[in-house]
Amino acid sequence: MGTENPGRPNFPMTASPFAAAPPPTTTPFSASGPVVGSEASGFRPQAQPPQNTMPSMSSGPVAGPQASGYRPNNLPARFNDPPVSSPPAAYAPPIGGPPFQRYPTPQFPSVHQIPPPRAPPIGQPPFQPPAGQVPSPASFHPQPQAHAVPMGSPPSRASDLQLPSDSSSFAPRANFQPPFSSMDSSYSAPRANLQPPLPGYVKQANSVSQAPPMAPFQAQQGSYAAPIPTPPPPYHPQQGGFSQPPPIAAPFGLHSRDQIQHPGSAPPIGGIQGLAEDFGSLSIGAVPGTIDSGLDPKALPRPLDGEAESNLLGEAYSMNCNPRYLRLTTSAIPSSQSLLSRWHCPLGAVVCPLAEAPEGEEVPVINFVSTGIIRCRRCRTYVNPYVTFTDSGRKWRCNICALLNDVPGDYFAQLDATGRRIDLNQRPELIKGSVDFVAPTEYMVRPPMPPLYFFLIDVSVSAVRSGMIEVVAQTIKSCLDELPGYPRTQVGFITFDSTIHFYNMKSSLTQPQMMVVSDLDDIFVPLPDDLLVNLSESRPVVEAFLDSLPSMFQDNVNMESALGPAVKAAFMVMSQLGGKLLIFQNTMPSLGVGRLKLRGDDLRVYGTDKEYALRIPEDPFYKNMAAECTKYQIGVNVYAFGDKYIDIASLGALAKYSGGQIYYYPSFQSASHGEKLRHELARDLTRETAWEAVMRVRCGKGIRFSSYHGNFMLRSTDLLALPAVDCDKAYGAQLSLEETLLTSQTVYFQVALLYTASCGERRIRVHTAAVPVVTDLGEMYRHADTGAIVSLFARLAIEKSLSHKLEDSRSSVQLRIVKALREFRNLHAVQHRLGGRMIYPESLKLLPLYGLALSKSAALRGGYTDVQLDDRCAVGFTMMALPVNKLLKLLYPSLLRVDEYLLKPSSQTDEFKNIMKKLPLTAESLDSRGLYVYDDGFRFVVWFGRMLSPDLAMNLLGQDAAVEFSKVALGKHDTEMSRKLMGVLRKLRERDSSYYQLCNLVRQGEQPREGFLLLTNFVEDQIGGTSGYSEWMVQIHRQVQQSA
Amino acid sequence: MDLGFLYMVQLFCISEEVKMVKMTMIARVTDGLPLAEGLDDGRDVKDAEMYKQQVKALFKNLASGHNDASRMSVETGPYVFHYIIEGRICYLTMCDRSYPKKLAFQYLEDLKNEFERVNGAQIETAARPYAFIKFDTFIQKTKKLYQDTRTQRNIAKLNDELYEVHQIMTRNVQEVLGVGEKLDQVSQMSSRLTSESRIYADKARDLNRQIELDYRIACCKA
Predict the structure, then answer these.
(1) What are the Zinc finger Sec23/Sec24-type domain coordinates in residue numbering (chain A) (predicted)?
(2) Which terminal residue of chain A has fewer beta carbons within 10 Å of its beta carbon, N or C?
(3) CA dihedral A879, A883, A884, A888 (to 10 degrees)
């Protein structure tokens, strides 16, 4: 690629931003892309991601911020310089190495185009590292040239200039072009070509326009400003977008083109400097009356750089628990209700008390039994790192209610000169945000219960035919050794069709005895004992049962299902101990209490006010039963199968209100779906589970949790009853403020989960976090956590869909996003002439995208015909329980191109990393010569391009390559490529084992499978009347402006 | 597989007659820390909570050292607590009054032997409640053996003359739980007695003198 240009020297610092961008690899950026705002420092570099077209606008200076924002984490100073890139960052991912790889560098040159303003590149030096990661580094260099270019801005010019320089710079352009294309035909062509490869760059290109002039502003949108040679770290990048005003007055971004061309925009720069805000902007150039939005799709922010962990608070709150356990929607609590009312996003938290910790970060277990656990005697807060000791160590002050408590004699320790306890380092509870206390007897109403798994298995004819019984029996048997809690673990089984079958598993028997109860109206338990047995004692009987279960019912022709009575029977057997009830249901319950009828086939209901009724349980039996179960510490997990409607809305209530989970396998056939069931059931049986738990979240005076969202039952106003909870479950909660102003500087949150571990130890897991109180709305935006906000949005929207039309749910999401952005715009409109730019906080740059993805998710999408009712309900139930990262992945799945990786002779691990470059979720990302993997955390879709080399397909599929793909399962073949592909899939699965991604193969153009498997999930595209990403942004932008 | 299909029409409830052992608890005497407990204790006991509270009070009582008998039966309502204390561990079970005392104590002996064998070394260092909860499976198993008094095995045990339980004291729960309080009362009463007897002595002396005086006066008058 082009090496450094002469220009470089000039802008040493600046370049970096770009670089970063392109190489998604660079961690700092990438992270930022998604997250944004991370910087601790006030400056956040904003991300101005979207500048796209705008670049010209202006303000070169502006650009810088974004980048800086990201960087802040690592290298504050440098970041500033780079500023711009951030937006790009988002894209960058796509850009990632892969693209480059594909296209020979030479190609780029051709592209030339616009010398992408990469000015930012300037910064290169700093970035270089990143660059290095990406093959592209060289490309960055070119940027300097870009600088020059930017000035020239006109694309044409740019091209000229650049040609010599780096291809990389071009690349970006390419991206841009697409958007523009409408505008300029000439460009478009070239761009098109490029696009696929370099989506990421685009942004940079945008920046170009900006201006080099700005040198002083480094930050600015990376693109423009970037150039700024000087390292004036102080300026954070502002968003270039804003400044722009000068260039194009036009409200609508259209400028983009023009502006770009005119480097002139620079002028604005001066003004910009002042901005230290962190916000991103996007020029929306739609010409009034035209359909085309002048928005450069490539420049839109996207979460392509991997998971964004927010850690906005940095050092000051380093003792906070890890965000994997507790994420607030903003790490800045408003001091008054009036301030809160201007923050239109939800204020609240997403709690995942048992999130899996990576090795080495396990939560320490502390035994306080001899002294008793130290708690505030008024508000019952547990001792934590934020309490303060006074009076020579004899008293401690509660950080939540400020009460002065006595330190018990056994816990006393002297204070040193700074007021710290001298034994601080031996007290994990005083230095760590997350600890497990061993609970003394006061925390027990009974001895710790043993882990208990009860299986309720449908054996009606459809269950037999689908092969479900066999898979379930085999899986349970294979997991017997790994069930937690040996040697206390208890198990029991009931099977049912039109009657209920109990099994006596007494350890002295060699074969289980079956007892059949056919009186469904008056269920009784035929044996007092031995229906629930100790696994270690009755192991041979249990195994004999599981071995014979599939054959026992193989000739069963009973079509009925008495689920309700069977659940009651299971409840009676389990009620003494509690535990986990796993229900395997293959047909709609047809007998006894809780029988359901076919509904949802009446098209007339859809779109009416009664439509929501189909999404809630038909029969109150299910909710009542769940409430009973919760009371007796029984958590229900529902595994639903079946090729027809089985009313997940009703069945799911069992799991929803007992803290369980719903697994849905539509049209289950053991041959094709068995692996998924096997994996997920095994995970359910073997993951560490907390039994008979209750959870409460405490917070400081003046605020309180007003509502909770997720799968659980409330035992009192703020106590969540969770009979069986595990690492895959998260709970959302919303906060409200009391009348009075918050006067304290800091608010504390404490999550306490009292539970019984599988080993029989009763424990209290405590997570503590401190958050500053702010009086400025800007601070709230700066510290916003998009992931947590999206998670609460999703929960609220799904709940709303249970009482309103889907459309209302969707529009409420959109409305809240619009309101939030409008408020933000108002915040800045006065200072900066914004023209037609859309601005948003750097921290929320992905919010519109996730909002769009949410309204296109299976839970909320379209109407009757778009998603099967059962699918919709199942996804809704699942989303209500998903931890933040998994939800984000489901909303914006990753799309990877793998053919190049497979074709390369041998692979090493870093190459493997290179292929993990996510592409924007749009059909434009697909190249018909490529092979792509789509992964949403629940399934894979492997997409074979039409022009993919037949050789590759043969290698992967063997003889199956020519067959209809719907019948082909991807299996291992003895070829290098097949092994590599399986390796990729395995790695993707290992990233998160809570669900198993089953592999679907689809060929380009193979309808309708390609449509429903893949295309409908491309959230950035316009599908079936929904807006694409650009249209959505334009819509939001217009709405923001309308009432601004 | 040869599974007998038993169609059961009526619930036959064996539990009432057969489940004689209602509850089993093992605790450390020194501090009353519960170490293990039967799995589904109190399943068909009405007011199980109340009885559990009584057991806790009893353990507390033991910790304070008021009862030093190593074997004792304590009647409460329709049930009896039997306990043995050995090696600073208290093994306690609650049975129906009709359940043979002899079997109950043999049951506790069985538990004790196994518990010492398995956990002996760690008992003193146990630092959390129910540290030996895993022992509940053994309790469960053993309890079943003793459940039915009519089995050959249990009849044999009943007839075993070697194990003598007659001298084990039986008291009432109120009496036992109130024992601490009563001791206090006794000492209070005795001290009151002392002081009152002193007063009596004084008064008696006065009276005597008075009488003598009266007598003399009378004599004089006479």
Answers:
(1) 373-411
(2) C
(3) -50
Residues of chain B with pLDDT under 50: 1-18
Whether pLDDT at A112 is above 80: no
Residue A713: strand pairing partners: A721
Answer yes or no: is the ipTM higher than 0.85.
no
Question: What local confidence, expressed as pLDDT, does residue A227 receive?
Answer: 37
Q: What is the pLDDT of residue A1043?
A: 65
The predicted-structure confidence for A204-227, as pLDDT tens digits, reads as follows 333 333 333 333 333 333 333 333
Which residues touch A800 (CB under 8 Å, ≥6 apart)? A808, A809, A812
First-to-last alpha carbon distance for chain A, in angstroms, is: 46
Q: Which span out of A249-253, A603-607, A789-793, A1026-1030 was modeled with the highest average pLDDT?
A: A789-793
In 3D, which of A114, A241, A121 has the Cα closest to residue A177?
A: A114
Token pair, residue A476, equals 């349970």
Q: Compute the nearest-CA separation of A633 from chain B (Å).
A: 14
Handedness of CA A406, A409, A411, A415 (dihedral sign): positive
What structural domains does chain B harbor? 3-172 (3.30.450.50)
CB pairs under 8 A between A and B: 87
C-beta neighbour count of A1019 within 10 angstroms = 25
Which of A488, A514, A518 shows the shortest C-beta gap to B3? A514
Beta strands (DSSP E) in A745-893 are: 746-756, 762-774, 837-841
- Average pLDDT in the A526-544 region? 91
Tell me how crowded residue B125 is: count the other CB atoms within 10 A of its CB: 7
Burial of B26 (0-12, 13-18, 19+ CB in 10 A): buried
Mean residue pLDDT of chain A comes to: 75
Of A273, A315, A235, A327, the residue nearest A58 (C-alpha): A273
Please determine, for residue A659, whether its predicted confidence score (pLDDT) is greater than 60: yes
Nearest to A760 among B2, B9, B133 (CB): B133
Tokens of residue A225, six digits: 């400003």
What digits encode the pLDDT tens for the residues A922-963? 888 899 999 999 999 999 999 989 888 888 888 888 877 777
Q: Which of A365, A373, A441 has the most B C-beta neighbours within 10 Å, making it the best mutation to test the interface with B? A: A441
Chain A hits for B43, CB-CB cut-off 8 Å, are 576
pLDDT tier, A835 (very low <50, low <70, confident <90, very high otherwise) = low
Q: Name chain A contacts of B133, Cβ cutoff 8 Å.
A: 447-448, 488, 760
Nearest to A127 by CA among A240, A279, A24: A24
- Distance, in Å, from the CA atom of A735 to the CA atom of A705, rounded to the nearest integer, reads 4
What pTM was computed for the model? 0.74
Contacts of B37 in chain A (CB under 8 A): 446-447
Question: Which pair of tokens denotes residue A453?
Answer: 């798994």
The Cα–Cα gap between A210 and A62 comes to 8
> Predicted confidence band at A647 (pLDDT cuts at 50, 70, 90)?
very high
Residues A38 and A312 sit within 8 Å (Cβ to Cβ) = yes
Q: Nearest by CB to B128, which of A367, A512, A534? A: A367
Residue-wise pLDDT tens digits, B135-165: 998 998 898 888 877 888 888 888 777 667 7
Nearest Cα neighbor of A7 from A107, A150, A202 is: A150
Closest chain A CA to residue B48: A446
Chain A interface with B: residues with Cβ < 8 Å: 367, 369-370, 438-441, 444, 446-448, 450, 487-488, 511-519, 524-526, 528-529, 534, 536-537, 544, 548, 551-552, 576-577, 760-762
Q: A363: which DSSP letter? A: P
Report d(CA A55, CA A59) in Å as an integer. Answer: 8
State the smallest CA–CA distance between residue A516 and chain B in angstroms: 5
